[in-house]
Amino acid sequence: MSARSCLILIVCFRLLIMPAWGAPQENAPEQASTPETQSQPEAPRADKPTSWSTRSLDWLINQRNNWSHRLVATGRSIDGFLANRDSKDAPNHSHLKLSWTSVWKKSEVIENTPKARFKLDLPLTNERFRLVIENEPTDETAASTKLRDSNLTDKERPGTRTEGRLSFGELIHHWKWRGELGVKAEFPPDPFVRIKAARKWNWPHDGGETHFQSTLFYTHIEHLGFKNALTMDKPLKERWLGRSYTDASWDDDDHSWTFVQSFSAFFTWDERRLIENRVAWIGENKPSLRSTDYLYQFRYRQKLYQDWLFLQVVPEALWSRDKNWDLSPSLSVGLELVFSE
């Protein structure tokens, strides 16, 4: 691990053990004045030297803010060029997410996985046609892989994403249709086409919701794929949310289906901390319809600083057909830094 990575870990550890860092502190109770204290002149206060950890945190904040400004300015300039419009004051949600995850497994092997996720926001361009530039489209990621992905999901981030609809979208009541042309920002670049259909149902009495999304995509390298996802959310009680997630994905290369069924219970500890308990089943249809994995996860997520520095700790228990259903425990610890405005 590099010296800069160690520095970031130390700063994050300080934030973790001081959850109220950066919040306004309560005023200390005033001491009753006495004749002795009134008669004594106040001694001049010497400025305390700034600690090393504070200087390191200030450096991290300044670097993050500077690079976020450059990233958003670049996205705004490209958007204005493609749309042939002035984009100086247009909102832009381009972002870059850098993460580092360490996983400890039963075999005592530690896996360190750095990852960068980038997406260019083009709101003005999307008023004319839907164009997507990103390096890791989530629709092409297998649901079984997402279950073990320790990064925070887009739904847990601030900001919205501009959506462009196909011209015939209004012809089907309550359904939202979206067509996208895009390029994976990797080497070599991989162009793709996506068509999405989505619908949302609100439950009449208990505040629950059901979301369904069907995605058909084609990429030049990975070819054709098809995915259906059904999510049902139900508030259980104060600060508790139950979720059922069902996924069926078709891979044209293998001509096979992969199935995922998971149930989760979320507990919102406070504005900064979230706990999730999840059980999941993973299956496939080749050589026959069968189970491949059973999974249990406990996730602890915390905002270490504002809305751009995150920590996640995930103990996991996995029973896999490839391991003769032997228990395979693991522990992953991840940090994520988000560059955006």
Helix and strand arrangement:
Elements lengths: L2 H15 L17 H5 L12 H32 L11 E11 L4 E11 L10 E4 L8 H5 L28 E9 L5 E13 L6 E11 L3 E15 L2 E12 L4 E13 L4 E12 L5 E16 L3 E12 L6 E13 L2
Helix pairs in contact: 1-3
Tell me what you see in this structure:
This is DUF3187 family protein. 17% of the residues lie in helices and 45% in strands. It is an alpha+beta fold and 341 residues long. Strands 1-2-3-4-5-6-7-8-9-10-11-12-13 form a 13-stranded mixed beta barrel. β10 and β11 form a beta hairpin. The longest helix is centred in the first third of the chain and has 32 residues. It is globular and about 55 Å long. The N terminus is likely disordered.
Q: If strands are numbered along the chain, what order do they take across the biggest sheet?
A: 1-2-3-4-5-6-7-8-9-10-11-12-13
Number of helices: 4
Report how far the terminal alpha carbons are from each other: 29 Å
Major sheet characteristics: 13 strands, mixed, barrel
- Give the helix proportion (percent range): 10-25%
Mean pLDDT, nearest integer?
Answer: 78
Order of helices and strands: HHHEEEHEEEEEEEEEE
Rough shape? Answer: globular
Spans of at least 5 consecutive residues whose pLDDT stays below 50 are 1-39, 150-171
Name the quaternary structure: single chain
Structural class: alpha+beta
* DSSP strand content: 35-45%
Total beta-strand segments:
13
Q: Roughly how many Å is the radius of gyration?
A: 24 Å
Signal peptide: 1-22
Organism: Thermohahella caldifontis
Biased composition (Polar residues): 28-41
Biased composition (Basic and acidic residues): 146-162
